[in-house]
């Protein structure tokens, strides 16, 4: 049931609030302030509890809308956060991230705590402590393929590598050991859980991760760029939903007062929505006039109860109390009149009756539509010809098609019923997460091509439109099909290898596996969907697969000699890593020594390092050239001004003409330097990925 909920307070600022740039901070250590990033590289701070000294020596809170201060950063702000970084002080500092710098600022003292250059950029900020910090609070900075942690002195005490540009971060005690882990979302569709610099788990999603928040215990919520919102318990997904709009902000707050925080989402169309973290059901919904840019939780009015604070792009701010708190504010007259409904109750009952009446009319109209559609059909066709038989069933099997370089879902009906169309829904099945396949002629056996974009195990939800051959009506049959992780690799026989002239890969990965061959074969059957049978009295086996994406081979060899050894031959390093990680997870192997030999990858890595060195040399040379050009500009300015003061207009005109040419040269050099810098960052990103 969706609750009706009225805001507890509303504010409206004259400045817009940018997406993701808002936080609540106790800048003086006692009173909460709203800090928001706005246009022009500025930050405004609203302090409704600013202490004013009265005549009797007491303090009072003004709470006026004009209690706004501005901080001029003069650079585009990329991320904003706050926290008590200094354990010796109660007040909280602001953390302001720009394109290549991080500023920790003490607003109360009007002083910088530290200022750090961050070459990898700042795209996300988080505040907290984890195992490696020994309980010391850190500000975590997510940038281009890297995560850094700074203490109160500005010292870098934490550093690790991410797979791509970091887009969201939060802290959560995933393994329930009393110490929080760092959860990181990145642009490569991955959610990684870090314990110190070690990656505990990786979760592959369907799109770029745009939001993360801790709900309770070892539960956390996430949001994707394609409008998906969901919840994980540890690494197990509890639920997810998808919308055609975009999630701008996500947080956790107990809006219904049941003791369990709900997942609150703010959307690009101004929708504010609360869903149960355990079931995903909508419990509260509101709509604001402009896109929601930030969701915060704080006792902002210092009333003794936390509120949900919703910030909008147009500068509007709304607060929402939990339902139990709002109900406690009902007028005393309504409470005293036991058994007599108040005006609000009567209005709510009338609204409920109106909603039910409207629903009744819609259902009656829908029923009438079905009846009208059936009447002409019964007259046009013989009895029984338009109806789908009650025992109609649909089956699904998975096959590989080497010619089309894809997997195929073979759908069949058990009688004469035909399939008119199929909807396939899956996270990584295609770019949008779902597609519709319609044959030119309805058939009882249909082959649906599927090409997963990543090696991830997924469950496909198949909805098929099935009906009789001559019927204008159809039924929706639903079926789930489990697609194994390595479904895009088809086994090859020796004859097929000779016919296709497949060359063996030159790269390999070798590691010990002290496990029985039948158990390894069982894992291979499940993840490659093959039917391998162990051969009696056999200590070795070799399997040949072909990737349907790039038509490159994969050879798996296992031998029980010398305690057991497995060799994976493939030129795809990422594939070998996924293979080993999934195999070790299944066999409960926590530590593994391996020998990797990827000559082509090493050659590419050396080439990238050489590019980085060349780009860096070019950057240094350009910096020197621009410094010389700047000195030349200064000299020309001085000579031009001297000529003006001496009245030598001819010389002044010539100096300004040379100055104009020098300025154009500086602009051109700046463009070259920016292009070189972008290429350098791209090369450094490749270095981190390959490392």
Automatic annotation (TrEMBL):
Cited SUPFAM superfamilies: Quinoprotein alcohol dehydrogenase-like (SSF50998)
Major site of localization recorded for this protein: other
GO cellular component: BBSome; ciliary basal body; membrane; motile cilium
GO BP, one annotated term: non-motile cilium assembly
Coiled coil: 346-373
Ranges where the BBS2 platform domain occurs: 499-585
Keywords: Cell projection, Cilium, Coiled coil, Cytoplasm, Cytoskeleton
Location within or outside the cell: Cell projection, Cilium; Cytoplasm, Cytoskeleton
Record-annotated Ciliary BBSome complex subunit 2 N-terminal domain positions: 23-128
Residues spanning the membrane: none
Alphabetized InterPro entries for the sequence: Bardet-Biedl_syndrome_2_prot (IPR016616), BBS2_GAE_dom (IPR029333), BBS2_hp_dom (IPR055380), BBS2_Mid (IPR029429), BBS2_N (IPR029430), BBS2_pf_dom (IPR055379), Quinoprotein_ADH-like_sf (IPR011047), WD40/YVTN_repeat-like_dom_sf (IPR015943)
Keyword Chloroplast: no
Domain of life (superkingdom): Eukaryota
Pfam families with a match to the protein in the record: BBS2_GAE, BBS2_hp, BBS2_Mid, BBS2_N, BBS2_pf
Gene3D superfamilies: YVTN repeat-like/Quinoprotein amine dehydrogenase
Annotated ranges, domain BBS2 GAE: 403-486
BBS2 hairpin domain segment(s): 599-687
Domain (Ciliary BBSome complex subunit 2 middle region) ranges: 168-275
Full protein name: Bardet-Biedl syndrome 2 protein homolog
Taxonomic source organism: Chara braunii (Braun's stonewort)
């Amino acid at each position: 049931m969706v609750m009706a909920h009225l805001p507890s307070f509303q504010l409206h600022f004259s400045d817009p609030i940018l997406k993701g740039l808002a936080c609540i901070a106790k800048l003086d250590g006692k009173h909460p302030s709203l800090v928001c990033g706005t246009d022009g590289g500025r930050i405004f701070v609203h302090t409704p509890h600013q202490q004013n000294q009265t005549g009797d020596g007491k303090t009072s809170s003004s709470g006026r809308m004009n209690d706004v201060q501005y901080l001029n950063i003069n650079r585009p702000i990329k991320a904003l956060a706050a926290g008590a970084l200094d354990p010796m002080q109660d007040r909280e500092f602001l953390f302001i991230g720009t394109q290549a710098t991080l500023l920790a600022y003490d607003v109360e003292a009007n002083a910088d705590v530290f200022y750090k250059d961050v070459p990898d950029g700042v795209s996300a900020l988080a505040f907290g402590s984890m195992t490696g910090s020994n309980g010391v609070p850190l500000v975590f900075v997510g940038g281009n393929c890297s995560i850094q942690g700074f203490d109160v002195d500005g010292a870098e005490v934490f550093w690790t590598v991410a797979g791509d540009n970091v887009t969201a971060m939060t802290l959560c005690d995933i393994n329930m050991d009393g110490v929080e882990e760092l959860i990181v979302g990145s642009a490569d569709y991955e959610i990684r859980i870090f314990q110190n610099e070690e990656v505990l788990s990786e979760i592959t999603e369907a799109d770029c991760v745009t939001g993360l928040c801790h709900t309770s215990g070892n539960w956390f919520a996430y949001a994707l760029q394609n409008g998906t919102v969901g919840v994980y318990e540890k690494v197990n997904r509890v639920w997810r939903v998808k919308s055609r709009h975009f999630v701008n902000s996500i947080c956790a707050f107990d809006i219904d007062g049941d003791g369990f925080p709900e997942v609150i989402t703010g959307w690009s169309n101004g929708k504010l929505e609360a869903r149960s973290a355990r079931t995903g059901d909508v419990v509260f919904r509101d709509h604001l006039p402009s896109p929601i840019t930030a969701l915060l939780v704080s006792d902002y009015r210092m009333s003794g109860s936390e509120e949900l604070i919703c910030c909008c792009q147009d500068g509007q701010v709304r607060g929402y109390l939990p339902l139990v708190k709002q109900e406690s504010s009902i007028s005393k007259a309504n409470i005293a009149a036991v058994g007599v409904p108040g005006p609000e109750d009567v209005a709510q009952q009338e609204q409920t009756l109106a909603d039910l009446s409207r629903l009744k009319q819609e259902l009656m109209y829908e029923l009438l539509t079905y009846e009208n559609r059936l009447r002409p059909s019964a007259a046009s066709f013989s009895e029984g010809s338009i109806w789908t038989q009650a025992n109609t069933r649909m089956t699904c099997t998975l096959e590989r098609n080497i010619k089309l370089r894809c997997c195929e879902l073979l759908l069949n009906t058990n009688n004469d019923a035909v399939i008119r169309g199929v909807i396939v829904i899956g996270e990584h099945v295609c770019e949008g997460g779902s597609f519709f396949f319609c044959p030119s002629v309805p058939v009882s056996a249909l082959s649906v091509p599927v090409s997963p974009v990543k090696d991830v195990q997924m469950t496909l939800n198949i909805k098929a439109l099935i009906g009789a051959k001559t019927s204008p009506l159809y039924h929706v049959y639903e079926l789930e099909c489990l697609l194994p992780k390595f479904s895009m690799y088809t086994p090859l026989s020796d004859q097929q290898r000779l016919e296709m002239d497949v060359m063996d890969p030159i790269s390999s990965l070798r590691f010990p596996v002290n496990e029985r061959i039948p158990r390894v074969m069982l894992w291979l059957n499940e993840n490659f969907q093959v039917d391998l049978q162990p051969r009696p009295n056999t200590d070795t086996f070799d399997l040949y697969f072909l990737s349907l994406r790039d038509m490159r081979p994969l050879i798996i060899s296992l031998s029980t000699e010398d305690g057991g050894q497995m060799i994976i031959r493939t030129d795809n390093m990422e594939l070998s890593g996924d293979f080993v990680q999934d195999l070790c997870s299944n066999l409960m192997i926590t530590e593994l020594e391996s020998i990797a030999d990827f000559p082509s990858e090493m050659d590419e890595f050396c080439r990238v390092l050489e590019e980085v060195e060349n780009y860096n040399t070019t950057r240094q040379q350009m910096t020197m050239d621009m410094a010389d050009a700047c000195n030349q500009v200064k000299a020309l300015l001085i000579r031009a001004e001297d000529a003006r003061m001496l009245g030598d207009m001819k010389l002044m005109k010539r100096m300004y003409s040379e100055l104009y040419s020098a300025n154009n040269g500086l602009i051109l050099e700046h463009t070259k330097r920016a292009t070189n810098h972008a290429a350098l960052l791209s090369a450094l990103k490749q270095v981190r990925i390959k490392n």
